[in-house]
Amino acid sequence: MGLNVIMMGPPGAGKGTQAERFARARGLPKISTGDILRDGIKRELAAAVEAKARMDRGELVEDATMIEIVRNRLLQPDTTPGFVLDGFPRTVPQAKALDEIIDERGKGPLVVVDVVVPESELIRRLAGRRICSTCGTNAEPADGASRAVCGKCGGELVQRTDDNDNVVSERLKVYTRQTQPLVDYYRERATFRVVNGAQAPERVAHELDTVIGDAAAVGAAMGTEPT
User: What is the pTM of this model?
Assistant: First the structure.
């Protein structure tokens, strides 16, 4: 039976890193919104091309468009054993559509994990976060480097313009406001779990392994998902 995971959490919670680690350990594709769009554009899907054009113009991408893109991605053969989603769904209509997609696949369960971190810790983390000015990824300094250079490509590490305290605080408020209906949608499910993201990364990873394994077993025993 496949294992389908949604990794939720605010900016700075570390969900992207944890999603990547978990997916790699389980041999599952880790799929972010950016990954989905890039894949859709590569395959010349009209919805993906239109979505990118909207984003480039600073416009919101409609739910129907994102749902179509995600549906196409999740029906690809590499998702047969399951997947780890990071950044989707973002709205309740998207979550309902994802339920339908999983029903179409005939493979479950769907495990939803909310990585929770206090706002003060998120602000501290984001204030110290650096992005590579060359390759654009969130990066750690290269080992032994005399200055802040990317360990991946050697580019200079700089602070993101939206990582200052005031902007971060507003971003977290927006995230909470937009995400609360989604959390409420999933909260009563037997396969919904909350993880303490304020721990050391190794502890978070261990807790994720434990709660996802437990939730997956519960979902499998129930036979159908969602509940």
Answer: 0.79
